[in-house]
Amino acid sequence: MWIPTENEKYGVVLASFRGTVQHGLPLEIGDTVQLLEKCEGWYRGFVLKNPNAKGIFPCSYIYLKNAHIKNKGQFETVIPMEDSVITEMTSTLRDWGAMWKRLYVKNEGDLFHRLWHVMNEILDLRRQVLVGHLTNDRMRDVKHHITARLDWGNEQLCLDLVPRREFSMVDPDEISVTELFKLMEHRHRKKETPVPASTHHLFVHMKSLMSFSLGEELEVFFHIYDSRENRPLSERFFVRLNKNGVPKSPEKTERQCTLFVDLGSSDLRKDVYIVVHIIRIGRMGAGEKKNLCSVQYRRPFGCAVVSIADLLTADSKDDHLLKVYACNTESEWHQIHESIIRKISSRYNLAGSNTGLAVSLQLLHGDIEQLRREYMVLFTRGVSITKKLGFSDIIMPGDMRNDLYITLEKGEFEKGGKSVARNVEITVYVLDIDGQVMKSYVAAGSGEPGGDEYHSFVLYHNNSPRWAEQIKLPIPVDMFRGSHVRFEFRHCSTKDKGEKKLFGYSFVPLMQEDGRTLPDGTHELIIHKCEENANLQDSARYLKLPFSKANLPGNNQAVKGVKESFWITSFLCSTKLTQNGDMLDLLKWRAHPERINDSLSKLKEIDGSEIVKFLQDTLDTLFGILDESSQRYGLKVFDCLVHIINLLQDSKFQHFKPVMDTYIESHFAGALSYRDLIKVLKWYVDRIIDAEHQDHIQQVLKASEYIFKYIVQSRRLFALATGGQNEEEFRCCVHELFMSIRFFLSQENKGTSPVTQTQCPCVCCNSQAVFLRTFPAVYGELLKIFTVKEVAGFVKETLGSLPATAHAECPLEAVKLQCMAKTVESQLYVNPDSRCTLLPVVLRLLQAHMQEQRDLVMCAHILTSMLSLIRKDDSVTTEPAVSEEVDLIVESLLGLLLQTILEITNRPQPAGTNMRLQFQDVTGEFVACLLALLRQMTDKHYQQLLQAFTSKDDLRDFLLQIFTVFRILIRPEMFPKDWTVMRLVTNNVIITTVLYLSDALRKNFLNEKFDYKVWDSYFYLSVIFINQPCLQLESFSPSKRKKILEKYGDMRVMMGCEIFSMWQNLGEHKLNFIPAMIGPFLEVTLVPQPDLRNVMIPIFHDMMDWEQRRSGNFKQVEAKLIDKLDSLMSEGKGDETYRELFNSIIPLFGPYPSLLKKIERETWRESGISLIATVTRLMERLLDYRDCMKLGEVDGKKIGCTVSLLNFYKTELNKEEMYIRYIHKLYDLHLKAQNYTEASYTLLLYDELLEWSERPLREFLNYPMQSEWQRKEYLHLTIVQNFDRGKCWENGIILCRELADQYDSYYDYRNLSKMRMMEASLYDKIMDQQRLEPEFFRVGFYGKKFPFFLRNKEFVCRGHDYERLEAFQQRMLNEFPHAIAMQHVNQPDQTIYQAEAQYLQIYAVSPIPESQDVLQRDGVPDNIKSFYKVNHIWRFRYDRPFHKGTKDKENEFKSLWVERTTLTLVQSLPGISRWFEVDKRELVEVSPLENAIEVIENKNLQLRTLITQCQSRQMQNINPLTMCLNGVIDAAVNGGLARYQEAFFVKDYVMNHPEDGEKIGRLRELMFEQAHILEYGLAVHEKFVPQDMKPLHKKLVDQFHVMKSSLGIQEFPAYVRASPVHFNGSPRNSCRNSVPNILSLDGARVVARRSPLTYPSVNRYSSSSLSSQASNEVSNITGQSESSDEVFNMQPSPSTSSLSSNHSASPNVTSSAPSSARGSPQLQDKHKHSRENSCLSPRERPVSAIFPTPLDPAQVKAPYQNSRYQFKKASPNQIGDTILPRSDPNLSAPDKVRPTFSSWSLDSVKEVNNTQFSDTVGKFLSPPVPPRPPYSGSSAKSIRSQSPGPMSRSPQKSSMPPFTPSPTECQSAGLVSNSPVLSGSYSSGISSLSRCSVSEASGTEATAGDHPAHLAATMPNSVSSGSDELIRRENKTPPPYSVYERTNPRRPVPLPHSLSIPPNADPPALPPKPHQIRTSSMKLDQASDSRRADGVPHVPRPRPLPRKVSQL
Prior knowledge:
Largest sheet: 6 strands, antiparallel
Mean pLDDT: 75
């Protein structure tokens, strides 16, 4: 049976449990669990991190821990009873663990490793704490270390700042808000601005001396030197180096390292240096040879200096290599460092080029104890301490020091009978009182232990040596008396044995007889002659002699006249000895009573350091004198006491205050002193008003704190000794004293006082200020002998006596506040009894200052302290008192607090950093005070507050004020970003207060008393509250979210419910907030909190309903909703769930149905549902846009998404401003991606919205305020620039011309000239620069996982330069990494469409150009044509071969059909995007016979083109022609054309397909024509073929004869022979009249694209041979080849015959069988085409052809009804009808217009309209070609390219006029492909055919404008070929995104030139001018709007180019 657990409530999982049993709960090791029930060794409970999942688990897996239970029962919570630091550590490490792994994923390696080390360190420390074996001090250190590490990690990971007190986390509910703020601020300031240390230390590590000339031992001395005052600041640090220049004792680090301690901040400046002196130990001369002399001397070597300022920038211990300088003259050695510092280079030089001193230097900051903690290794390893000369800036009471420093300055010596000067060495000894040498008390410096003696260095031959050597004598205090220092002088001989001879000595006693030590300063000592050492053994003999010339008696002139002298400087640094005689006199006052008065007077002149040395003795002396002679010396003793007290206020001696406090508590014995002290103090206070000079009185008042301490302690001692006698007398004295004080304090501004008339009022004011500064310190002393109420009374009366106002310049006001602040912080105020007494006084003063906005920093400080003491307490005794205090504060200060916060937050922030920090602190403190006060308020307080307002206006002002302040508190900048704890407390207080105030709002400001401003402020506050970042719990970690929800709940939902409730109360007043509140409420609904959304969304229904009632519609609601939605979602708000919620039928909370359901019940449901649908669609696009914008690089997704959104704003919402904004966003994306052409088209959208007018335009986006003309001009120039960069120069020319027209109209010839030059440069670029033709790819996006704008749609994309299919496919897969590439080209089924995945289907497609007039002309350079082939393309084609019926294995062409797919886009490419959606998809099937006709026709035209290029020398070499001829002839010889004969010319086929008779005839003619062209081509080839290719040519000729034989051609038919083929046509002869030929009624046309062979650079696409083996035939039919990457790789066929390249496969040859049946290769098999047929580009496919004309429905129904290949009997003038296609497949054969003869010629005739052609010329130039008949009803004369000849013979036998076909003309007939040709050839030579363009234009674009005028009457349908395209697009009116579409679709559109019928005239010279294109053919796409629905073209009246081409 399961029993609820009593004590077993909390545990930790010891081992992981899988939970495989029924109801088992899986556990992981380390999880914490809460236990609910227990049963037979099993627990039931849950893991704390997931309390919703409950289950059972074994007891043995759980380690129980003690825990405290809150809310026992169903909702109990468990708090572990462990150290709070441990709890915090555990939870923090869990949070860090997850984030630590994310750091690894983000590749933030540095932080990853650092955090890992810190986490391990914390875990180790946690173990130490848990073990519990640490001492209290060690535990404190460990916790400090832990919390420091936790804070570091939180800061690095941008987590919240944790408020702590004594290492433990603080619960915000358990302390006041002001305390919480102070804790947060303290931690924040500590983190941000560490307090600058006042003490600094220099660490020095001597490493080595590098020099090539070493060989002697060295001594190195470091000291710190002040060059400004020319004195050392520290003692010396001494290191001995061996002969190698490294320290002699490397194992003793304290001899190599030192710390120069106690440097003040003033010492860290530029003119303070580290000076290093180096002394060598060895021979006298550095270069002397070694001799027998073993005596060594200390000799100068070198000096180095470095400025201490150079170390300030070094963060770590840096190694320095110091240059060592030597002195030029030894006599200057004493000042070599000064010479180096001052750069007097004449006095020194480098000691050696390689000499350098390697040292490590580092500045450390903080006191020495702090350093010991932070640099433990430094101190444990050993470091010597080098002290400062003198005391540090701060003297600590415990410091013990007794050091005497003696500097050997200089000497003056006689020669002593020598011819040269002496080499003097000084030996220093210290001797005690007995004359014995004191051991180890002579130190050269720190670092080395002291010795018995010290030897100075020797200066060579110098009788006036200057040493400046400092030695230290650390003699104990008790040995000072009687000691003396002896200096012995020796001459060091360099001769003989180098012995040192004594010649004199000096001495100096260390203490005088009166106890004073040797005074500091320079002393001139007498040198006593001496030659025997024995004379110095008895010190008593010479101590009687005079030692200093200054101390000689006046009559001793003999000694004074001695020339020899020795100077030393002494400096004593002692905490026990003094050099001051006055101090000694005072301390010995009993010995000399007569000197007491004098000694007391001189005390003020004694140095402070001397006084603090003997502080206790001095105080004892003073109080001893006071006790014995109070009447006589009372005033003087009091003054001395005041002087000493004030001396301790100095920062240097402030640390001696505790010494005085200890003295008062433990050593003070003056039990009677209080009487005298009170009396003298009162005497001074009474004299304040009358005194002229108040400096001394102010000193007395300044010392009043310690005077009161002495008074109180004296009284306590007296009471203790006497049992409390004279109590009343004492109280009376104190009351009188306070009466005097109150009188003095109240005097300041009483104008009747005679004092104020005679002296400056500020004099007394200053004294009052001095007293008030010290007065609060007195409270604690008074409490020792008076009750709390008595002291509170004293304080109240004293502070209450202060004047209400003060003089403007008087400092009293600020001091009053300071006094109040100290009062509030004192122990007195903490007591509730005294607080109620003092509170009114404090509030009165605060009120006065806050009203005037003065001293706000101090006011905030006082308020903070006051409110920190007020806590809600459960005890009944204190509750009324607290409530009363809150009442008082609310009544006095609440309004002022709000006003103050408003004023200081609206002020501009100060400029200085410190001022700004102070400003922020003040704001934060006032905010904390307000929050603390509001949190203390109860219902009763709110009721009293609201009732206190006498009028509605006052209440209104208060509500507006508090709502405004709350809005300020919510601002992100109010608190630092990591103060989440403070923000949550703030929000909790705000929502509580708002709930109270909303009742007042409802009661007082509704119905007839409605006030819009208050309600608006309320709603605005609520919205900001909900949207603030710190409440968005979804962004927090689970543990943090759980803590917040447990403590506060979700405050957003609470506020949302309150908004809904208040909204419901508004009634008809809701109209006031429509549409203003739509945006804010919408912002609230975007918060991803389901409950909040359910609450808020119904408000929109309400708004729509009320707006419908008022206006009859809700357009306002809709407009506002859409505008706000865009800005909010672009900020990152909203999600997919929100979109679904808005449109869903899910019920909302409570009784409210879904928004859609509510709307469906209304009368206005249609418009409402429409709005919801629009908003939903907009959200779909906005969400996609936002998701795409999160990605890093610009890719197709971003651009496509922006285009989708831009179109939505234009077409569906008609939001012009949003439309323009997204135009510019798209423009920026294109520029970033370097899509300059697309960027131009994009910016053109905005350009088209503008007119050439002077209308002023406002500043918008990045555009300044300017006229519309100026902006349009700027846009034009920008667009032209981008067209130029995108190499789209033709479009740029159009804009240049438009701009030039504008300049011309304004006579702005300067700019006109520039524009014409720019236009000319664009023409040059067209002709001179190479342009790459991009590939086009069809991409299908299938599956629900794609963004909305792509989902289940297909697009055609324009590839990048050099981008082929594989590269494009890889790019798409990179953009959509989760997508699956489909391996077939079949349309997917519904399962793919609905799949929760992403499928990509990619294959290459071929463009179908629209501009035919340019492409059909011969003389147009390819540079020009290339533009029109791949620009302004609407339609694309893809072909797939398949077999219909039974497949003939011997000849597969019998059943080989082609499935032709034509894709029509919504926009032409290029446009505003690199891809556009497919708008229409058309499918036709091309029969095998038609396919064969197309293939041969295209190959013929390709051959013609190559022959023409060869003849006109356009080819760089003849290889393309050679390969093409070889491919055709070789394939034909091997059976290529024979396959067609076998398939279509056999009797069975003719009998079974009688309808194909005309087509069969056509095929036969084309075969003959091909043979004819080949014959001529061989003739041309022979003329140009290089010598090395002659054998190949011969082979080709032989094979050609074989080919003719195989075709059964002995000679060409008469009509072929009679028409010589002219291969050298001039441009003027080309492209005259071109009427389309249609292959069949189904509209399957071929428009050949430019052949790659026309450019030498793309010859790689040609095949060297078009022949293949039979095995290739079948493989190519099925779409695979084993030969190369250019053809498909499939299984070979058993067929053995070879096919002509005329049977080329379609561009995307793909089997119709499923991919599995085709055996698709794997993706990684690069050589087998990973994407199969669907992924081959046109240029890499075996075959390709472009069919520009999609099918009309009628054509599909009757594919062969009006076949253009049906033979019919024709008159000689109509022969063309029997053999050529008609211009319109919809017309019957007799009605079709006959095409003219082609003007494409292979001869060099200059004028084509020359009707006389010589047969001989024709035969010489070319073999005959099948004729092209003229139009019906037209005379031969009207046909310019026609040649004379008999017209009455039959097609087979007649002799036709010479026929000059044009390769460009034939395209208009629909027989030629604009891209690689589709054919039925499957040899390896297919690629030659498939990639050869024989024509440049689409058959649908043949222009009627090219026909002669007189044909118009006889040709009513002559425009039909052009109108086909128009009819096909009658339902498509896309936005004008092209420069070719700069016409408003709603305006009349002029008929393009290509469709109009101009007068009979020659066509204009080529290339066509861009303005013609702009006004005519470029608008072809727009012309569809002018057509009627029945398909008959409507021809509007032509009009000039409009200036404004498009509008929204």
